[in-house]
Amino acid sequence: YLCKYCEKSFAHRPNLSRHISEKHKLLRYFCPFCDTSFIRKTHLTKHIPSCPSKMKKRDDDLPYGCKICEKKFTFQTSLRRHIREKHLNIRFICPHCGMTFTQKVSLFNHVEYRCKGPNPVTFMEKKKNVEMEDEG
């Protein structure tokens, strides 16, 4: 069984699952075409030119479009993440060191593995008049 994030191989699926949950919790870079996630931005940058979903679809064919900047996405989850991170400016703040994150899971991982504190969520939201509407 091959890890799709680092290509390490395992003889048994449970070992692969444990490896992913332990080593790849900080996945925070998402492909806008296929929703694959990466630990490093450089891995995402290398992935995008050869992304199978990108090759199959042109932007005009993508079903979910942002009404603010007109960027289009294959998946509704990608559109929602885009709106939350780029337009709503929602941030989760570490109460121990002040680092900010766009995703709650990234804050949890940071607190657990970097700050060694409990898993509180401090939420600061700067709202703009933006509606996330379902399309498609």
UniProtKB/TrEMBL annotation:
Source species of the chain: Lottia gigantea (Giant owl limpet)
Gene3D superfamilies in alphabetical order: Classic Zinc Finger (3.30.160.60)
Domain C2H2-type: 1-29, 64-92, 92-120
GO CC annotation terms, alphabetical: nucleus
Keyword Flavoprotein annotated: no
Listed InterPro entries: Znf_C2H2_sf, Znf_C2H2_type
GO MF entry, a single one: DNA-binding transcription factor activity, RNA polymerase II-specific
SUPFAM superfamilies: beta-beta-alpha zinc fingers
Protein name: C2H2-type domain-containing protein
Keywords: Metal-binding, Repeat, Zinc, Zinc-finger
